[in-house]
Give the backbone structure.
Amino acid sequence: MNLALFKLEFRRSLKGFLIWSFSLGLTLFLVIMIYPVVQDMMDALDDMLAYLESIDSSFVGFLETFGGIPENGIEYFATEGALFLQLLGGIYAAILGFNIIQKDEKEETVEVLHVLPLSRSSILLTKMMHVLITILLFTFIQIGFVHLGFLFVSPNESMIELWTFGFFDFIMFLMISYLAMGLALLLKPKTSPLVSIAIPFPLYIITMIAFATDNDALKALKYLSPFTFTEPVGWLKDHVDFEWLNFYIFIGLTVIVIILSFVFYKKRQMIK
Amino acid sequence: MIKVYNAKKYYGKTCGIEDVSMHVENGEIFGFVGPNGAGKTTLIRLLLGLLEMDDGDAFIFDEPVKMGSNHLNKDIGYMPSETHMFDDLKVKEIITFFKTMKKADQTYIDYLIERLDISLEKKFGALSFGNKKKIGIVVALMSQPKLLILDEPTSGLDPLIQSRFLELLNDAKKRGQTILLSSHVLSEIEKVCDRLALIKSGKILFTRSMKDIKNEEHKRVLVSPNYQNLHVDGLTYVKDDDGISNYTFKGDINQLVKHLSTYQFKDVTIRDIGLDELFSMYYEKEEIK
């Protein structure tokens, strides 16, 4: 890894990092800040739900599919806030990873970088490290804002649970980044970074479908998405077992993509 | 210093270069001349390992050039034809980054900044094309590498900076640095190069020393009204243009003047043929072939 290049990368991406981190962080903070209001609404809803359940018992089951009624602040975050964190964080992570390869090609700075006395492996490793640190800080800021919100409105929530969830979200974002990096290497230079959204968005939908259905075949889809092992309702509300198989599948896939990326990056030609 | 044997590169079906062989000696300034799209940048990118050769071999410092390899880069300073850096960064941040990467000497960097009249506080993205090129020059030259590869370095520079840049190249040559200079501005090639290669449509038409070219220097003779039947040793008719007959001449000028004085021409011009014209002649010959 090269420190000068690392600093340069951080300096180049600072504006985008601050915009993404603080706009999403503040959104999450506001979501948490309205928790007391929502809590009152939920209490009122409980009576109505009891009545609805007496008419149709499947109604509550249907509601549970989408997170159900939260009973504390962390469960409220799992059902209402984590969606923003995971989907928007996934998109940011994908763009970051995609830009490891495509940004320098689009801005044509690749020509001056690749003639530095620095191996391509070292350049790629440095850029990957930059993405790792950026995503770590990004996730820290998001969970930090959620934590801060709870300090104001519900200080007795289990913050260890929240931060552990945040740590696995960081790993999931990192996986998405490196998968997007691999995608960028398969595409022609100067492809729009918006293409990278093709990774987190469908994967998020896959997890939603897998958790919403009773169909066994569709349930198996959960192994195809890294959002499964960080599924917030299962993690923070229902406390289901950690999806180790899904986790290992994506660790393995990410490692393979990283290895192939080093091979392809070395062979990538500079063609205008 | 640089040796290229039968290099070939195609972009799909489009020819980049075809069967190019050339060599650049230690300590010389070698001009690589040709019109836009001739293949100059392709060859340079092959030498820098930015592109993969379809066929042929290339060596720098007697080491084989490989695509994606960086082991030669510490001794090479490269300036691309268009300088793309990091738009959001200030010039001083960019120079500091490259100084760290290339382990360059600050005193020489300060000298280059002063000679090229560079403003350090502006953001790179806010600079004009010419000012961006100046940053490219500083980055290429700053570490005083053994080999400089410069792709169209003076396009967009104002005349004063162009002349200072050529001085810097001459200084580099005096220090023993080797320079491969690609250009289509023949006046700069004429001023600084020891040898040159002429490339067109991906093929090298010839490689000659400037000394040989100057020894072979022809003169252009224009007579008006047009008359195609002048016969003097060394005088060759080329074409008629707007009522003026064009000849080239190489030989005893006194004999030519004496012969011309026997005619009643309205106007006679005898002048040196510059490199531009000389190369146009070569290109025309190639097209005729």
